C-alpha cells in the first residue's frame, strides 16, 4: 500500500517476490504494476521482518534509497541492520506509541509488538494523520486492543488482516474430516477476531489487506481457497465482504493492485483497474495464468535448495546445541525431544534427527517416543543451514512444505525456540519469558459467574473484552486460546495456567509457576 498526502508519500510493506521457499505469492498479483514510479517515495514503512512483508530483493532493486525509513521500536536491531545492507541510510526511529510530526504537518505513530510470538523481534501497526484525516494500517499485527489509536481521534480508514497466515491445520497428519473441522474453527476465529478489531475502532471504512497468499506450486495448489472447502483458512477479500455482511458490515472496501482510494473526512471514493466483482468471479483463471507465468521462478528456486556438501547433523549440532545450553524457559517449556525426519533427494531415504531439549543436544533419533515430529525434504534444511537462517518458523514452517504430528496440546515454546536460532534472539526471548512468567497479574474481573485474572496468560489480552465463558470453559477470542476454569488448565497449549474461581467461592491460594 502507498499512502500519498501533500506532505509526502509512505510506501508500506512492498511485497512482490515469492516468500517461504517459493510457496507464497501475493494475490492478486502486483508484480506488473509500475514499480519504477511507485518506488519513488518519501518514506518507507516495513511492519516486520516476515518475508511476505520484508521483500529484500524488491527493496534493494526498486525502492528509492532516498526514502526515510519509519522504523518501529523493536527490541533488536535486525530490521535496521538488514535495511542498511540493502542500501537504506535514512532512518526515523519512532518511539513506541508516540505521535511524531513530520515536515509539512504529516503525523505518524507506530505501535510495536514485541513478544517472542511476534517474530520474535516484533510486528507493528502504522497510524497516519494529515489535515484531520486519519488512517490505521494495522496490517497483520494483533494488539490486545486499539485504544491507543482510538484516543487520537476518529479513524477514517482501517486496514487489517482477516485471512490465515499459518500452516495449521493443513500440514498435520490427520484424517481429512479432522483437518476440515479444525480449519473451520480457525477460519471462524480469524473472522471473529477481525470483527472485534473493527468494532473497537469504528472507522468510517474497513479495507481487508495482508492476505491471503496464493500457492502456485503444483504441490501446494490445494491450499488455495477455490475448492469450496469450508475448512480452508485462506479466504479471500470477496469472502471477507460476504462474511462481514452477515454481521452487519456495510463499510468494507476491497483494493486490487492499481486501485486508488481517496479518503476524506466526508467519505471515501475508490477507483479500480477492473470491477472487483468481475475479478473475483474469475479467480481460478487468474490463478492458473499466474501459475504458468511464475512457474520458471518456482523451478529456479527449487534448483537452488540442494547443498549435499552440508553435514546436516553436524551443522545442526554446531548451531543449535549452544542455544540449547543457554535456554532455560524455552527448553523447559518444550520439555522433551523434537524429531525431524528428513527425506532424501530420491524421495525415499529418511534421516531422523532429534533436538533433545532436556538433554541439551542434537543427535540421531534413538527410537524413543517424541511429542513433536516434523517431516520435510533434506534439501530444505540444507538450504536453511547454508544461508544461516535464524528463523525456521518464518521460512520452513510457513512454506507448508512439511508434515507434522504431535501428541497432546499445541506447544508454543517449540515454535518460539525455532524462531530464535541466534544468540540475540534467544537471549531476548528468554528475558521476555522470564519477565512475564515472574510477573504477578493481580487484577481480577468477573465473567458469567467466574472471577478470573484480567489478562490472558498467553499474550496478556484483556479478557474483559476478549474473554467468552461457556459453562466451565473460557475462550480468549484474540487468539482462540481456551482454559478450563475449574482447574485453571490451558486447553490449547502446555503451560499458561489461568487464575480463576467461581464468584460465590472463596479466593484460592496462588496457583504457582505457570510453566508447571
TrEMBL record:
<dbReference type="InterPro" id="IPR017941">
    <property type="entry name" value="Rieske_2Fe-2S"/>
</dbReference>
<dbReference type="GO" id="GO:0046872">
    <property type="term" value="F:metal ion binding"/>
</dbReference>
<keyword id="KW-0411">Iron-sulfur</keyword>
<dbReference type="Pfam" id="PF25451">
    <property type="entry name" value="SCP2_Rv3818"/>
</dbReference>
<feature type="domain" description="Rieske">
    <location>
        <begin position="451"/>
        <end position="491"/>
    </location>
</feature>
<dbReference type="InterPro" id="IPR036866">
    <property type="entry name" value="RibonucZ/Hydroxyglut_hydro"/>
</dbReference>
<keyword id="KW-0408">Iron</keyword>
<dbReference type="InterPro" id="IPR057330">
    <property type="entry name" value="SCP2_Rv3818"/>
</dbReference>
<keyword id="KW-0001">2Fe-2S</keyword>
<keyword id="KW-0479">Metal-binding</keyword>
<dbReference type="Pfam" id="PF00355">
    <property type="entry name" value="Rieske"/>
</dbReference>
<dbReference type="InterPro" id="IPR036922">
    <property type="entry name" value="Rieske_2Fe-2S_sf"/>
</dbReference>
<dbReference type="GO" id="GO:0016705">
    <property type="term" value="F:oxidoreductase activity, acting on paired donors, with incorporation or reduction of molecular oxygen"/>
</dbReference>
<dbReference type="GO" id="GO:0004497">
    <property type="term" value="F:monooxygenase activity"/>
</dbReference>
<dbReference type="GO" id="GO:0051537">
    <property type="term" value="F:2 iron, 2 sulfur cluster binding"/>
</dbReference>
<protein>
    <submittedName>
        <fullName>UDP-MurNAc hydroxylase</fullName>
    </submittedName>
</protein>
